[in-house]
Design goal:
about 220 residues; Glutaredoxin; binds glutathione; glutathione transferase activity; Glutathione_S-Trfase_N; Glutathione S-transferase family protein; Thioredoxin-like_sf; Glutathione_S-Trfase
């Protein structure tokens, strides 16, 4: 079987990389990881060795190269159907895709003002920036709706773990970092995601990253 390699950015900061990492870990497939430290003079050259877009994450599977976190997750869902990375029922899958792509292409204020800084705990003026409260309110309402309508069978947004959970995992870390309160109905989901073995492993690696001090 072809080897799987996931190229990721610094684990403390690369929200885009965390998503396919969680999805790939969920498939149970063995994979190699290449970590490119972000924001160094060598970053662009190192990423260019792997990525046609000049960005991480990138997945290599034999001769196949897939870039962009959503494309990678879709590729994994197709390649490893037994992992059930999307809900099985078509209407639920459509909902999960909508939730996922809303995160992929939206929430600009949140991205700009509350960047992922996984291991930090801080308050920032960004919390009051225009659009941030609206993004937070929309995310919490959206996720509460998923849990209420589809979360009966398990602790994740659609019961079992899916790509939607992977896409909102970086949001959980943002809320924790910046002290954004979770609605009570979302705390068990938050804890389920933070308790995933892959999430724990990623967080531990982020804690050990050498370039961390430059951001504090
Ligand atoms: N839409 C892309 C965005 C990827 C992205 O922006 N990655 C950042 C790191 S989190 C990157 O590679 N930046 C290049 C750099 O820092 O030089 C995806 O979903 O994968």
């Amino acid at each position: 079987m072809s080897e799987l390699t996931l190229v990721v950015g610094s684990k403390n900061f690369s929200s885009w990389s965390l998503r396919p990492y969680l999805a790939l870990a969920h498939t149970g497939q063995p994979f190699r990881e290449v970590l490119v430290p972000l924001d160094t003079p060598e970053t662009a050259a190192l990423i260019a060795m792997h990525s046609p877009s000049g960005r991480v994450p990138v997945l290599k599977h034999g001769d196949t190269v897939v870039w962009d976190s959503l494309s990678i997750c879709e590729y994994l869902a197709e390649s490893f159907p037994a992992a059930k990375l999307w809900p099985e029922a078509s209407p639920v899958r459509a909902m999960a895709r909508s939730v996922t792509t809303e995160m992929h292409s939206g929430f600009q204020a949140l991205r700009t003002h509350l960047p992922m800084d996984l291991t930090a705990r801080k308050t920032v003026p960004g919390l009051d920036a225009p659009g941030v409260h609206a993004d937070i309110a929309r995310i919490q309402a959206l996720l509460s709706g998923c849990r209420e309508r589809h979360g009966k069978a398990g602790p994740f947004l659609f019961g079992d773990f899916s790509i939607a959970d992977a896409f909102y995992a970086p949001v959980i870390t943002r809320f924790v970092t910046y002290g954004v309160p979770f609605r009570p109905e979302l705390t068990s989901w938050r804890d389920a995601v933070l308790g995933l073995p892959a999430m724990i492993k990623w967080t531990e690696a982020a804690q050990g990253e050498p370039q961390l001090a430059r951001y504090r």
